[in-house]
Amino acid sequence: MKSHWRESAKNPVEAVALAPDRPSCLSLRGVKDRAESTYAAELDGVVKRYGSNTALDGVHLGIEAAKVTALLGANGAGKTTAVSVLLGLTAPDAGRVELLGDVPQRLAARRRIGVMLQSAALPDTLRVRELIELTSSYYPRSLRLAEVAHLAGIGDLLGRRYGRLSGGQQRRVQFALAICGRPELLFLDEPTTGLDVEAREAVWAVIRALVDEGCAVLLTTHYLEEAEALAHRVAVLVRGRIVAEGTVDEIRAQGVSRRIRCVTQMTVEQVRAWPEVGSATRQDGRLEIETTVAEPIVRRLLDADPRLAELEVRRAGLAEAFVQMTRESA
Questions:
Q1: Parallel, antiparallel, or unpaired for β 216-220 and 185-189?
Q2: Spelled out in words, what is the top-level CATH class assigned to the domain 2-252?
Q3: Pick from 181, 183, 147, 138: which is nearest to 31 by CA?
Q4: In the chain, where are the structural domains located?
Q5: Rounded to an integer, what distance in angstroms lies between the CA atom of residue 237 and that of residue 245?
Q6: Which CATH class is domain 256-329?
Q7: What is the dihedral of CA 99, 49, 45, 37, to 10 degrees?
Q8: Phi and psi torsions of 165, nearest 5°
Q9: What is the pLDDT along the chain (330 residues), one digit of tens a residue?
Q10: Is the dihedral of CA 30, 31, 32, 37 positive or negative?
Q11: Which letter, b or e, does each residue of 88-110 get, where b requires 16 or more Cβ atoms within 10 Å of its Cβ?
Q12: How far apart are CA 247 and CA 297, in angstroms?
């Protein structure tokens, strides 16, 4: 998804300049007081078609306050359309859309969100300080420049022109622009693409701090470790439909739940014939087995091969469950 920088209230990242009152801390006072709904944003039976292609097919999705909701899906699954509908950039053909208790096209709602899309066309000639000050001016109670720079880890970049930054540095600036307005709802699309491990961990820490203060987050990412680390709830989108939704553990449980690795004289063909073995392969000299129940397989391996070594048993991660769901639903 791509965001074009333009001085127009139609862009969800931008709004008119309001009161100059700027609190000096990260606190999102007032966010937790909003009790009208448990959802900060919601798609209710939303349908969106582009000609003969149905991008969203009766999608129900709620973004809960003070939680990270990860929306996962392969390319073309409908994630971009879902986010565009929530932001009011795309009108649905059917269904209901709510953004912070209002329709997403209303400026009042847009002033309360932050958006970091997968790429952003920002003016190359503006300095980072100027970009933050301009974006902050659209919000009624934005963070101070020093706070934004500290949170995004860009204090050393404030005087530099945006176009002369590396890709990772530009992503950190885009993150700063997304959080500078003290959002109640934050949209993050591949937020840590291009970041090193240290910078990624720093961004995750800020996201967690925002959530602790009551901010709702919608995260779309292909980096499933990121979803595992941050998400309270996960929704899997396949061909415009939500095929699974729940906590990370609940999503994991819907896939192959155990993976066994060992060095053994047993052949792949022998093990594949055993009950409860989902698959068996040999990689780098080790036998790898997928199964829903590990214990009986481990016992049989030990009985069949007394010289078995380097035995490992681990629960399948979100990535394995996601791949299985998308393959079965395709």
A1: parallel
A2: alpha beta
A3: 183
A4: 2-252, 256-329
A5: 9
A6: alpha beta
A7: 0
A8: -90, 155
A9: 544 333 333 333 443 233 333 333 344 433 444 445 589 999 999 999 999 999 999 999 999 999 999 999 999 999 999 999 999 999 999 999 999 999 999 999 999 999 999 989 999 999 999 999 999 999 999 999 999 999 999 999 999 999 999 999 999 999 999 999 999 999 999 999 999 999 999 999 999 999 999 999 999 999 999 999 999 999 999 999 999 999 998 888 776 678 899 999 999 999 999 999 989 999 999 999 989 889 999 999 999 999 999 999 988 778 778 877 877 666
A10: positive
A11: bbbebeebebbbbbeebeeeebb
A12: 28
Q: Could you give the 3-state DSSP secondary structure of residue 44?
A: strand
Q: Are 5 and 120 in contact (CB under 8 A)?
A: yes
The two tokens of residue 111 are 């002033």
